[in-house]
Amino acid sequence: MTTCEPILRIENLSVALPEGLDRSHAVRNVSFDVHRRQILCVVGESGSGKSVTAAAVMRLLPEKVLRISGGTIRLEGEDIAVASPERLCQLRGSRMAMIFQEPLTALNPVMRVGDQIAEVLQIHRPGTSAEQRQARVRELMADVQLPEPERLARAYPHQLSGGQRQRVMIAMALALEPALIIADEPTTALDVTTQAQILRLFRELLTKHDSGVLMITHDFGVVADVADHVVVMRQGDIVEHGAPEKVLKAPEHPYTRALIEAVPRFRYRSRPDAADTPVIAVEALSLTYRNTSFFGARRETRALDAVSFTLAAGETLGVVGESGSGKTSLAKTLLRFETPDSGRILFKGQDIAGLAGAALRDMRRHIQMVFQDPYKSLNPRRRIGQSLIEGPVQHGLSRGDAIARAEDLMELVGLRRDALDRFPHEFSGGQRQRICIARALAMEPAIIVADEAVSALDVSVQAQVLRLFEDLQRRIGFAMIFVTHDLRVASNICDRIAVMQRGRIVELGPAQRVFQEPEASYTRELLAAVPGLASERMIAD
Amino acid sequence: MSATGQASSIARRNVLVEALLTNRVALLSGILLLAIVLLAVFAPLITGDDAFLIRPRQRLRPPGEEFWFGTDALGRDVFALVLHGGRISLLVGLLAALAGAAVGTAIGLLTGYFRWLDPIVMRIMDGIMAIPGILFAVALVSLVGPSVVTIVAAITFSEIPRVTRLVRSVVLSVREESYVRAAEGLGIPPLLVLLRHILPSCIAPLIVQTTYMFAAAILAEAVLGFLGVGFPPDIPSWGNVLAEGRAVFQRAPWTIIAPGLFLAVTVMAVNLLGDGLRDRLDPRLSRAAKVSS
Q1: ipTM of the complex as predicted
Q2: Cβ distance of B6 and A428 shorter than 8 Å
Q3: Which has the closest alpha carbon to B180: A440, A420, A484, A376?
Q4: Each residue of A358-388: pLDDT tens digit?
Q5: Domain containing A479: what range?
């Protein structure tokens, strides 16, 4: 690596939090350098201050709440911690550019993507002609490997896929050849296969454009794949930094070690053969979403296409696939939030595909769901206790018994019995997910459907919740359908795996067999794209 | 922050009270409104039956020590008329606002939740909105005859579509939240899901909308009174006091200025109060409300 002047040098950067919070600084005494042609990854869990650091470099902090209280940020030698707003405007875009996590919200929905890229050029290079700009836009779009740049430049953001949108964002960031690109969780919202492509793209562009990248991520897999240098943050402090081989293989700080250990790996559980009698048998289930536009044109989307499987008592079936593969539609249909077009759902021999009204409500107690986002799945205005007893009371349990059961359940999921009169906002994400599990269990269901139930959680919390699921299943014996996009998570908790693609199950079998000797080519693609396989080898060595 | 324990208990303060205390204009409006309401409620104690006493020899007296706001063409004390008139005007305003909110909310909840109702009910609402409110009120009151019930009903009718649209839009967004899905998944009947999990999210915008309806209803009643289809002259309301004053306006402007001023101040106070509450309760306009909801 070159030893010349770094593109970005941060020294003793501190960002103060408003008074009255549990800590005084969002970021404290942080120092690191980003060099040319290097990717520096800042890793940490939520609340570690990694995003605040990135925003401080762009000077995008909400100044009234978070202010830089010390240190310098030198971009190519110039201290931008004290730069004037006018100067910052010049620097943003031309010398440094930011790529956000969610490309759909960061792009203007009513502007063609080609025009959005051209706008950056127009603002910062007012002298150029429209033809020159158009030519540059095509060039940039080809650079980020967008197919058919001519056609896609005229598309609107919603007409592109998530990966294509992120490529457009990168093209915008590259438009003026900035020295520094800041990417805040650039691949978190993307599917694994797309993620792998985007990460590769970053690496290629770096050498081509001779710039440096500051990448914020929570995923050690991403770190292992792309980082030249790693900075691990915790509660605003840097706890460890160094080359990825060193940090991942021989972490010095106990926190880093704990984080790396919590990263899910392929690991298969062995359990006695599950009972043969299926609790639920799904036969040729099909679901089509129909949209009728204002002018009467119909659009049909096949969400489920002749899906069949069985689930034995006490067994866990993992449903994996990319977004749009029909995983969530399957979960919703089993819960009967959607009514299938055809096919049968036999629950203990009874077809529930066509139930309605009171019969449907009565059936629902037997199949319970745990949702993805723990911040949205509890009514913010109701106490935990009210949420936990609502279902059982509705199904005829007395209030007193329901409260007693709720208290027991709180203990079972690792929370305090007396927390029932609190509100959801008083709990962290992991705790809320435990409450949601308790709410599902309160119904004493035969089946729990978990839809990406650990995806929104930090890795260490994710590991705890996965252990909780496993432990509860052993003690209570419910069957589970576990929907996830993360193959490593699936391998940890599932007995069998169903791989879905475009509404169909393309492969179904025991977890270890599916992941180690995949039969379908799509399964092999998914496996190859799992981030951090390198790190796994690195750690296993 | 992952490490904070579950003991971190944030005190939940009453959002409404807080909204009032942090906005000085809203607080002042609230106090002003309260004063007007108290004056109206205790009007019989303050003025006795001055409002109904006809004094032929003291017609059209200008404001002075004996009659603070002067007297009208029949020699009635305008001050007493205004206070008594406030009783009817405020009562009609309040009833119309509450009735409009209740009926509109019920329809809005059902239409938003049961999608098959939506095209039917919303077209009916569009139809109602196409009828000029005051025209309908005039027609209804002249047909049935003036009484508190008919006047309130006439004013409420044209307010319903607005509330329905508001509530329906909130329901459409809240029903997609996972916690509503979760409640459905627990087997909770639709009506309970609506009342327990969806209605509370509608309350904040509803309170704001209700204050606006209150102001609009007071004005509507005054317009009806002024047009002569409101309450009969022996039941004073701000509207018909204004209407009677119109005849002698050039000789005795106080007969119009006093009730007009009360009407204007009340409507303004209610609107400012509504604005203040909206700034605080509408999450799109205020970050504070987002944190506390």
Answers
A1: 0.76
A2: yes
A3: A376
A4: 899 989 999 999 998 888 899 988 899 999 9
A5: 278-366+445-540
